[in-house]
Specification:
304 residues; alpha/beta; five-stranded mixed beta sheet; 12 helices; 48% helix; globular; binds iron/sulfur cluster
């Protein structure tokens, strides 16, 4: 098999990491490259293991997204979801993943759950974990009660996109990873793209995220903004908020993407070969970011 090549691409999470801290960005996307191989250099392997760490809130969000995907698949096959037994299954899986993380399984198998709280021995009371599973249940119960789900189920399941029509597309020569959490065509011929949220909403971040979905609709599916509805479904509240949208906003998103790509590439030693040097990526001065950074053990071990 040919060697994997570290090719430059863009994603929302990559942009967020770059905004947080340049050094973190380097360690995540360059320093840890190749660490999936258990025989790689120990420092690279360590970075790769640290890169996989997820906070408990991120984990809970992923669990909810996976469960929704599974439920939609069941509906797509014309079957019903028995909500409470379904939730019990989800929580049981969470317990299994949690135990694996607590036991450090991820150090041998980095693709299994690796909780930041376990790696950094964050002292959390039992109630904090129980609250987390309660939040997962609340989000999922809210999902099953959403009028939006009723609307979705009235449409033809073959017009749903659960695992996305495509995840990566070319944006002016750069592969861009953008895909909505869920999409469907309603009976009036409009495309609805949905972002499931399980935490607090950040208006700017949401506008950019949904804007990226509109770009996806335009460039991947060929659907004009006027025919697209963008929804943020906050499952904690629960609320479903539409984002006002038009062609001008799409232009702004394109410009935001261009700027982000340009800024990232400007840090590279050899942009065309996507080669980077650690010393070119400065460490943030904001220690509050370091406190919750996956890489603090190797970058700023003095930060508590
Ligand atoms: S510990 Fe701080 S400076 Fe180092 S990579 Fe993380 S956020 Fe950046």
């Amino acid at each position: 098999m040919a060697d994997l090549v570290n090719e430059f691409s863009w994603s929302r999470s990559r942009d967020a990491t770059f905004q947080d801290c340049r050094r973190k960005y380097y360690l995540h996307y360059y320093g840890s490259w190749g660490g999936w191989d258990a025989g790689s250099a120990p420092d690279v392997r360590r970075l790769y293991v640290l890169k996989q760490l997820a906070s408990r809130q991120m984990w809970a969000g992923r669990i909810v997204h996976d469960a929704i995907e599974m439920a939609l698949h069941i509906y797509q096959q014309g079957r019903e979801v028995p909500v409470e037994p379904f939730l019990e299954d989800v929580i049981e899986r969470m317990r299994g993943e949690w135990r694996g993380s607590r036991d450090g399984l991820y150090r041998e198998k980095p693709k299994t759950l690796a909780l930041f709280e376990h790696e950094y021995a964050v002292d959390l009371k039992r109630e904090a974990w129980q609250m987390l599973s309660q939040n997962v249940k609340t989000c999922l119960r809210n999902f099953f009660r959403l009028p939006l789900l009723g609307d979705v189920r009235k449409t033809a399941p073959e017009h749903w996109s659960i695992e996305h029509w495509s995840k990566v597309f070319d944006f002016e020569g750069t592969p861009v990873w953008i895909a909505p959490d869920f999409g469907f065509w309603n009976d009036a011929g409009r495309l609805t793209l949905v972002d499931w949220k399980t935490g607090a909403s950040d208006a700017d971040a949401t506008a950019f995220q949904l804007g990226c979905y509109a770009l996806y609709a335009r460039d991947v599916l060929g659907v004009e903004p006027a025919k697209v509805d963008l929804l943020e479904a906050n499952l904690r509240e629960p609320t479903v908020t539409p984002l006002a949208w038009d062609d001008a906003r799409l232009g702004e998103i394109r410009e935001q993407l261009r700027l982000s790509i340009r800024a990232m590439r400007a840090y590279l030693m050899a942009p065309d070969a996507n080669q980077a040097r650690m010393e070119d990526f400065e460490r943030t001065e904001e220690l509050r970011i370091c406190r919750w950074c996956n890489f603090k053990a190797v970058c700023r071990p003095e930060v508590p």
